[in-house]
UniProtKB/TrEMBL annotation:
Belongs to the GRP transporter (TC 2.A.7.5) family. The chain crosses the membrane at residues 31-50, 91-108, 114-132, 152-171, 208-226, 232-253, 262-281. Pfam families: Sugar_transport (PF06800). CDD domains: glucose_uptake_GlcU. The keyword Transport applies. GO terms for cellular component: endomembrane system; membrane. It comes from Bacillus infantis. Gene3D superfamilies: 1.10.3730.20. Signal peptide: none annotated. Keywords: Membrane, Sugar transport, Transmembrane, Transmembrane helix, Transport. This is Glucose transporter GlcU. It is found in: Endomembrane system.
């Protein structure tokens, strides 16, 4: 039960990240850079209190995981300019859930019984259906169709980064407390390498330190939940917070969507959440 609760805390933190960064302003470069620095500040503070053991394996895995995360986050921020917050979040979530579930099943053998496999397959169908519905209403003109294609390509790159960041830590069985600081350093290194040519050092990067602190809090609870309930379950539950950013994009940021698009987006979100929760039951 504690693992599920930790994953739900992650959902609340991560569900607000894109919404918060959008309100704070800046492009995907300054947002990514500011977020990584905020995460490093959080990780440094935690390290001073916990003082976990940092072996060469932990450093290597953490740095690689953090670098992959920066690839994922920069491209997720970048997809917003093509799709908007309300569409980027559920699509990104759906792709990540499919990716992490695949590794959870195939690599980590987390679904071994007939009931688990049946529930998992139904959950993945719901997730895919939800992801499709959130993008359905986009294909109404040449410009929107081009934006959809660019956004999807950007999100596919983002998914590779996000899935890799989670899988590496679980695959090598790295303790969450130990992974935090090396991972944050990897994020800063990766984020700097991806954004430095666009000069991300500005006031928006400073503002997005807050985004990094929020993300880091969610990351810690995710890392602690991984050994308790597994990759497929913990990551799936952690992504159910999309309702915060998706509905926030429509109703708080005032993103323009038709009535049809709004209905499809909300329905798609509900399907993705239902799929995420159903995956959670596979651990039972």
């Amino acid at each position: 039960m504690s693992g599920i609760l930790l994953a739900v805390i992650t959902a609340a933190c991560w569900g607000s990240i894109i919404l918060v960064s959008n309100k704070l302003g800046g492009d995907d470069n300054s947002q990514t850079f500011g977020t990584t620095i905020g995460a490093l500040i959080f990780a440094g503070a935690v390290f001073l209190f916990v003082r976990p053991e940092l072996s060469p394996l932990v450093w290597g895995a953490g740095l690689a995981s953090g670098a992959l995360w920066s690839l994922g986050q920069k491209n997720q921020f970048g997809a917003v300019k093509y799709l908007g917050v309300a569409k980027t979040t559920p699509l990104s979530t759906g792709l990540q859930l499919i990716g992490t579930s695949f590794f959870g099943i195939v690599v980590f053998n987390e679904w071994s019984t007939g009931v688990q496999i049946t529930l998992g397959i139904i959950a993945l169908v719901l997730i895919i259906a939800g992801a499709v519905m959130t993008s359905w209403g986009q294909k109404e003109g040449n410009d929107e169709s081009k934006n959809l294609k660019k956004g999807l390509v950007t999100l596919l790159i983002s998914t590779v980064g996000f899935v890799g960041y989670v899988v590496i830590i679980n695959w090598l069985e790295i303790d969450g407390w130990s992974a935090l600081l090396p991972q944050a350093l990897g994020m800063v290194i990766g984020g700097t390498a991806l954004t430095i040519k666009n000069k991300p050092f500005n006031k928006y990067a400073v503002r997005n330190l807050l985004t990094g602190l929020i993300w880091a809090a969610g990351n810690l609870t995710l890392l602690l939940s991984l050994p308790k309930i597994g990759v497929a379950t913990s990551f799936s539950l952690s992504q159910t917070g999309i309702v915060i950013s998706t509905l926030g994009g429509i109703f708080l940021l005032g993103e323009k969507t038709s009535k049809k698009q709004t209905i499809l987006i909300i329905t798609g979100c509900l399907l993705i959440i239902a799929g995420g929760v159903l995956i959670g039951f596979t651990k039972g």
